[in-house]
């Protein structure tokens, strides 16, 4: 069904960013605008989600050119769910940034670029045209590169160069893949590609193109072996930026992987094995990396890599239950990973450092906030009934059904290692006595109550979201069940786009 | 380097190049040209002027910081993109005036989109070049 309003979550952030550009040096106005923009963005995406959940797939032909000739925007349940999650994360980060980001960064355009980034994410989720997807990826990369380097400290630039180099490499692979695809089918519309790719006579070139897409999206979502840009860049920017990156940027690569490998290329036996092997290696390297890191944000970065493997493995198994597990994990992961980095920002405010040996005594000083953080850490580990627990059951069941025992073993190992590192983190940061030799600077205590609320509220919002996912898992399972059906049977999507 | 020839020439070239950039902008709908190229030519006109007369003098002609053009241009382009939504069409649909306008010819919302691009390009190019040249002096 055609609905011209599905593009609202993109436009709202575009307009917010433009108005903020006009108030370049007024940081208070920018903060207010950012929160207002993110709130209305959330309202629009919630309305979109409800509309798609209760109705059918919605499309919009940009510039009134009919698909497959023009660029089409499609809101099916998968993309509208991700747009909703992005908006929730963006709202939380925007509230947190109003206090958690330094004024110097705001004067150099932190907020407009942040909203351009969210616009790019929403665009990537909503587009139904593969070249347009590439363009949104570029919007995301450029915005994230600016956010990463804003401040210009040496280690920031070092991390940013690695980030930029590998992401440009990934984009090149992605673009080459699109070029070949256009050459052999003559179309860029994803629904149209889905009809035309199976008709290509020489299927070996189709498989080759699929590999280009695996490499491109694999680098972007930090899959083994080219994952190392992530842990070496995510600990350098301010925590609010790292939260957006950690929660959302790798997930857009995963979304694209799911979209392309269910709609355009149906993976054959070999490709599924490749995906599962990559997933296992990603899980193991991420888990072992997290084991040895002492800096909180580096540790979280490795955990991101580790848990990306869960989702890629779910795609590799390619059954309905595996999809349900993977997408449930994706939903849980966006909420929790964004929150983890916000928490690390909060700890930095309270202690002035993120080095675990130097930290300690948070629980005795801030018991309520510590318990809020504990809730998030527990759901990351997957303690029932919190949100990390349910998707793992589905992933276990799916891999048992597929006799993929190595994948189960790595899942179990990674879960144990996550438990171990989080328990260690809890003991070191919260329970241990604060070290007396090195004085810690607590800039949190000096803030007034309004600013304190602005810092803690976003953690609370996301924790409430996690709690909702965990306790109301039945609803989420309904949603992921429908998403998995949509992914496995793409005919409604194609019908909605092409009208046949 | 101050050369009398360049200074005199640039004084005449500035309006001519600006006029040419507007010509490129208007021609862009059906023929080669458009907001991006037009904006680059307009920016080059100012850059040439700044070579001859110094960056501070060029900034005096413009009157305000070129960065202010970026939100204005983006705003015009986005409004031209968004306007069709208000009357029930998808974004970016081309809306056209019924009657041709003298000199310009048929005018539609695409022209305003291009005008926005034109302003953004001038703003970005001049911001980058002026920042660099003010820092190196």
UniProtKB/TrEMBL annotation, chain A:
Keywords: Cell membrane, Membrane, Transmembrane, Transmembrane helix. The lineage of its organism: Bacteria, Pseudomonadati, Bacteroidota, Sphingobacteriia, Sphingobacteriales. InterPro entries: CPA3_Na-H_Antiporter_D, NADH_UbQ_OxRdtase, ND/Mrp_TM. It holds the Pfam family Proton_antipo_M. It comes from Pedobacter quisquiliarum. One of its GO terms (cellular component) is plasma membrane. Residues 129-418 form the NADH:quinone oxidoreductase/Mrp antiporter transmembrane domain. GO terms for biological process: ATP synthesis coupled electron transport. It is a multi-pass membrane protein. The chain crosses the membrane at residues 6-25, 32-50, 70-95, 107-127, 133-151, 163-185, 205-228, 240-258, 270-292, 299-321, 327-348, 369-390, 402-423, 454-477. Belongs to the CPA3 antiporters (TC 2.A.63) subunit D family. It comes from the Bacteria. It is found in: Cell membrane; Membrane. Signal peptide: none annotated. GO terms for molecular function: NADH dehydrogenase (ubiquinone) activity. PANTHER family: NA(+)_H(+) ANTIPORTER SUBUNIT D1 (PTHR42703:SF1), NADH DEHYDROGENASE (PTHR42703). This is Cation:proton antiporter.
UniProtKB/TrEMBL annotation, chain B:
The chain crosses the membrane at residues 12-30, 36-56, 68-91, 111-134. Pfam families: MnhB. The keyword rRNA-binding does not apply. InterPro entries: CPA3_antiporter_subunitB, MnhB. Keywords: Cell membrane, Membrane, Transmembrane, Transmembrane helix. Its main location: membrane. It is a multi-pass membrane protein. Residues 5-127 form the Na+/H+ antiporter MnhB subunit-related protein domain. The keyword Transmembrane applies. It is found in: Cell membrane. One of its GO terms (cellular component) is plasma membrane. NCBIfam families: PRK12509.1. Belongs to the CPA3 antiporters (TC 2.A.63) subunit B family. This is Na(+)/H(+) antiporter subunit B. It comes from Pedobacter quisquiliarum. The gene is mrpB.
